[in-house]
């Protein structure tokens, strides 16, 4: 019988505990756009039911990293990803993984609201329809309503579900896109600067929404606003020039960061 | 004569440009106040004032002088008050022929007198024209030179002239179209005076012969447009059946699936296809496709003729594929990447994204392309002249020969045509119908595109 040392047992237990806590694990992730390398061996873990904020100056690779998490980079010609990213301990870049299934589990909200040029109802029903999540019309109605309620948009649009989604205001459009992502019941929602095209009031609403969504989803958000990162996230990761500089609890990050570069960036000395 | 005048005009304008800008530069040097326009605008302004009024006057004079001279000559002709319009124009053309030296018979003294009158009038006209143009040029040049100064807004003046010129250019196409419509309607009305419009619009027989003698056996012709329109409809339908799926599918493949190198080769090739002369397609249809279609029809046991609707329609379909594919391609490519990403991020496959997001969003552009292609198919002439038939038959058998509106227009106008004969005038009525049909198609296309435009 093979008896482990106590330390080894503890370490293995730790590992197991943290693996269970980590929804997604990125190990030595590098991204190349053709010859150009955009990310350098990033090791970053995403915790379950937590909002993780990715911050850093423009072009630092935070959006690139975000897009590796649901393989949206696959659609970009000449883009290559190395390293390993797991979702619930299974490699998402494994050849056996169907990227369509992956994206149903890891949803995404974009910088600019991009509702389809269809009705509000059809915008939400799109995902459930293609994944066959509803058996009949009333099922689908229920999913649409629930998603809109979760996105805090139901009361504003319930009387005009058949009007085009593009007719909503910018903030409403963005919440529509969040509702659309929520409708396929993903486990992780990626948000790429979701508030950068919105006014402060709409931003506040979306932030509130992110806060509520945390209960049911794991969220990764890229943001340019320090205040937003501080307000909505529990964990923050700072990127610079394609490297992960520091990853820490948000509170610690904004009061007493370990890395000088983080300090400088947060204080507004560069970026 | 007017050619020399034009050259002198252009030269004068050019000279005034240099003179004007030189003067502007001279006045600006050492001026205390700030100058408004740069010297080049002063020069351009002087050139415009020198050249343009005189040029417009020249055009108007050339356009108007003949009819004025004609009237004067005819009025001086003895006893002209009692003559009708046809005789007057006959006299006038004889006078002009004699004046030009084409003498077929010895002219009467009256004609001789008229010729002398005509020649003197022409001389007066020429001298007057030169005098007026010279005066206009001189006045324009003088004013254009005089007005140059530091505060003169030459740039505004030049820009206004350019705006008027652009406005005029945009009106040219419209005015020409109106002229075309007017002439079509005029001739068609003459036709409808001989053949009742109801017979033309609702008649089921198209046999455009007219008896040369009253007792001829071939006797009555029939001018019912329905069979001809029906033939156009059948051939257009066949061509759309060929072109619409092919065009749209190729557009989808090229925008969404094809890799860059394939696209770089295929897209220009498709566009070259649009540049092949239709007469070449016609050869292809009549020499290659029609015999093949015929033997296919015979082997299927269907009544087949050497010229078939299928051959003409299919080749025409191939001809309009580039229209549909190119316009659909543009429409698909114009759908923002954000739409694709939004759909992919929800776990949609490429096929689902194309069917449910891209095609609906690109629909207006695609429909516009299809309708444009359709109006082209309806108006296409050369392929059907070569490959479709001449006899108007109401048949839906694609292996049989049908005729089209355009084919009939061509055959009616070829050869010995008299413009007081319904056989010839029928061509204009057909042209009018064709014009109205394509106009309606284009209107529908415009409306569809506007109505279903999905703003993204």
From TrEMBL, chain A:
- Which InterPro entries does its entry note? AAA+_ATPase, ABC_transporter-like_ATP-bd, ABC_transporter-like_CS, P-loop_NTPase, PstB-like
Keyword set includes Oxidoreductase: no
Report whether 4Fe-4S shows up as a keyword of the record: no
| All residue ranges annotated as the ABC transporter domain in the record | 24-266
**Sorted UniProt keywords:** ATP-binding, Nucleotide-binding, Phosphate transport, Transport
Q: Where is the signal peptide?
A: none
PROSITE patterns attached to this UniProt entry:
ABC_TRANSPORTER_1, ABC_TRANSPORTER_2
Q: Which family does it belong to?
A: Belongs to the ABC transporter superfamily.
Write the protein's name.
Phosphate ABC transporter ATP-binding protein PstB
